[in-house]
Amino acid sequence: MQNIDLNHEILKLIKEQPEISERNIALALSISEDTVKTRIANLQDIREKKS
Q1: Residue 46 to residues 42, 43, 49: CA-CA distances in angstroms?
Q2: Which residues contact 51 (CB under 8 A, 6 or more apart)?
Q3: Which of 18, 26, 30, 50 has its CA 20 to 30 A from that of 40?
Q4: Whole-angstrom Cα distance, residue 8 to residue 12?
């Protein structure tokens, strides 16, 4: 799975289930929990901030 696709899938799971744990994300996507933690830490909010 490509990096951007993986980030998208992580965000999709979080949006669908805000209470989902990193462990459950890892299980759902068949990746390591460390990978999930790293991806989430590296994601940045790029939305425009309202003044």
Answers
A1: 12, 9, 9
A2: none
A3: 50
A4: 6
